[in-house]
Amino acid sequence: MQVRFRQVGARLIAGAAAAAALFAAGSALAGMGQPSDWQIGFQGAATPVMEYITWFHDLLLWIITIITLFVLALLVIVIVKFNAKANPVPSKTTHNTFLEVAWTVIPVIILGVIVVPSFRLLFLQLNTPEADLTIKATGKQWFWTYTYPDNGKFEFDSLMLQDKDRKADQPRLLAVDNEMVVPVNKTVRVQVIGAEVIHAFAVPSFGIKIDAIPGRLNETWFKATREGIYYGQCSELCGKDHAFMPIAVRVVSEQAFTAWVNDAKKKFANSETPTNQVASAGQ
């Protein structure tokens, strides 16, 4: 009987090791700015907030893995040592002061280890630093409108590209006609609001997600440390074309951003929301 339980324990440990290896491989496949095939972990971090989220997630993963293995070991010990055959005369002990203190104090210590970085992360996410640039993102059915109040108050709509208009290197259901453009290594405040229903502005590689609620101006922030294009999606069920409401943020150098602003002022001068473009993006 004991040999059988040892075999079971060895198989469980081997399974856990295989799962850990699979997770590590999946994490290695995680792309930057967009989902990757067979991805398990987060997308690559492009902001300090997302780097902290990834670190905190990994810390919690280690903690819950250790707890799970510890509880599993206790269960195996109980099954092997305290079954009726191996222990026909059970102990009549009803109290153990050391154990009762331990299973009270140890969880408190674990929660203390978790709560400190948790509060630090909340403060980092919710305390918006002084912004270098403010952008207003308005969620509509079913596209986003971006306004640049610090750069001439121009605005433009950002709609998902249809397959016939999409280039080979642009991801399906994520590429848009007009991307939000921001400078690298600059603090960007994003003011978010909904035009008619609740949407949610979310970019995984930035570690941001906030609701866009009609009549209420929410805000979040990010500081992209790498140039590139980063994709997100509306993360609130907002209607029949919820799945076709992507977010695309292009991070460029400060010089490239200045040049883009000059071009955008001309391109989007006196632009109005095109009512004929509000047709279903999924058609």
CATH superfamily of the largest domain: Cupredoxins -  blue copper proteins
> What is the string of SSEs from the N terminus onward?
HHHEEEEEEEEEEH
Most strands sheet: 5 strands, mixed
* Secondary structural class: alpha+beta
User: What is the highest CATH level, the class of the largest domain?
Assistant: Mainly Beta
Number of domains: 2
As residue ranges, the low-confidence spans are 273-283
Q: How does the SSE layout of this entry go?
A:
Blueprint: H1 2-28, H2 48-81, H3 97-126, E1 133-140, E2 143-148, E3 154-158, E4 180-183, E5 188-194, E6 199-203, E7 208-212, E8 218-222, E9 228-233, E10 246-252, H4 254-267
Parallel strand pairs: 1-5, 4-10
Antiparallel strand pairs: 1-2, 2-3, 5-8, 6-7, 9-10
Explain this structure to me?
The chain has four helices and ten strands. The protein is α+β, with helices and mostly antiparallel strands and 283 residues long. It has two domains: 125 residues, Helix Hairpins (Orthogonal Bundle), CATH 1.10.287; 143 residues, Cupredoxins -  blue copper proteins (Immunoglobulin-like, Sandwich), CATH 2.60.40. The strands form three sheets. It has a five-stranded mixed sheet with strand order 3-2-1-5-8, with no helix packed on it. A three-stranded mixed sheet has the order 4-10-9. The longest helix has 34 residues. The termini are far apart. 22% of the residues are buried.
